Amino acid sequence: MDAAVAQTLFLAVSLFTLLILFIWKSTNQGDKLPPGPTPLPFLGNLLQIDTSGTAKGLMKMSEKYGPVFSLYIGSEMAVVLSGYEAVKEALIDQAEVFGGRGNMESFNQTVQGFGIAFSHGDIWKQTRQFSIMTLKDFGVGKRGIEERIQEEAQFLLEEIRKTKELPFDPTTFFSQAVSNVICSIVFGNRFDYDDKEFHHLLKMINESFCLIGSRWGQLFDTFTNIMKHLPGPHNRIRRCFAIVEEYIAKKAKQNQETLDLNSPRDFIDSFLIKIQQGEGNSSSHFHMTNLIKTVLVLFSAATETTGTTLRYGFLILLKYPEIQERLHEEIDHVVGRQHSPCLEDRKKMPYTNAVIHEIQRFSDISPLSLPHQVTRDVHFRGYMISKGTRVITLLHSVLRDPTQFSDPDSFNPGHFLDENGGFKKNDAFMPFSAGKRMCPGESLARMELFVFLVSILQNFSLKSNKHPKDIDISPATSNLLSLPRFYEVSFVPR
């Protein structure tokens, strides 16, 4: 046997041995680890996951392996929790231990461990507590922000009137309206709808989220060390966020030059004041970098998620004109045509409230949620999950849990109505996640959805160039975000 053949044989045997060791390590660690599909070296279980509809693929896996199962994302083991009971037990009953944040390099290459989404420990606690309190100071959850949303609704209605009943894609209008509300808080001002800089910022936010949820984004998150050296669309993610960061940094510098320590004008002012108060305190995590990353997350996440929910909601109403008609009847009866809808009206509008909840449940905007991480070794449902393990809380499986919703795959406002037609809460309604990492903008998003949707239906009827039976309300993509299919709508004055 010559040297070349011997070398080839040795390499083949070595690779085969490594393969056997990898499979043994992955599948033979006693009964402590959750069950799951057998992974391949390097790839893990990626070939077994439907990347065009990851959440549904994982739900299908849970039918075989149960509500708690393991999954290898590349060489990293993650634990998937499926169904209301398992997710509730983790995020609510054991909130502290499941309150860590798993890494997503597509985001973290930008936020770098700062801000309120992908930070940990004291940075996260200080930043989140400050952000929630400051948002409240600027009216979130109170009458103050409701008035801002009502004012923005009037600007949105005026833009819709300019379309003169012609069919158009409402994506930009909805994004602008929703974004202007958070802009008024973090920047202290709103943008005109024809502002080119505003359009560019929203385009960068939308493009970055679409790329993160694409196959390129998934490959980057899984094989970061390789993908960061390769060309491809995934490299646009950082560039898109960088453009938004540059704008935030410019606004922060402008605010610094005119800062009044006794009279903060917006979120940025409040953060700048906190920075000055923490100077010389080594335990403070308030500095310019954290300010920029925090505002980036607030601005981009609030814009993309609520704007997409509105867009999905109006597509659903085009599909079901009978639901639209019932909404018109309740709006006319409770709100009328004269005054702007307010949260006090919502208490008297059970059907409208149920429809909005069902839009959020059915559209399932964040089907995988952001990844969690256990903060210590924990026994969970008979299995051992080691400290630092990534945990995927499958919100899709909660919002589509047949034990909690009678017909989970159909759009049915009855899921949130009792036998007398009154509004009925459901604990499995978790579009904003739950526990320690629950979305801090929940109350703002709920206000926006109600005021914007009711304001539009108060003034317009919806018309499509397609017959309702031909309208497809299944998601176009469903990974990081569930996005509705492209559609056009005509708004006809009532």
TrEMBL record:
Against InterPro entries, the record matches this protein to: Cyt_P450 (IPR001128), Cyt_P450_CS (IPR017972), Cyt_P450_E_grp-I (IPR002401), Cyt_P450_E_grp-I_CYP2A-like (IPR008067), Cyt_P450_sf (IPR036396), Cytochrome_P450_fam2 (IPR050182)
Question: GO terms for biological process?
Answer: epoxygenase P450 pathway; xenobiotic metabolic process
GO MF annotations, alphabetized: arachidonate epoxygenase activity; heme binding; iron ion binding; oxidoreductase activity, acting on paired donors, with incorporation or reduction of molecular oxygen, reduced flavin or flavoprotein as one donor, and incorporation of one atom of oxygen
Membrane spanning residue stretches: 6-24
Which residues are heme-binding? Answer: C439
For activity, the cofactor(s) needed are: heme
The family classification in the record reads:
Belongs to the cytochrome P450 family.
**UniProt-recorded name of the protein:** Cytochrome P450 2A4-like
Q: Which organism is it from?
A: Microcaecilia unicolor
Organism ancestry: Eukaryota, Metazoa, Chordata, Craniata, Vertebrata
The gene for this chain is: LOC115479932
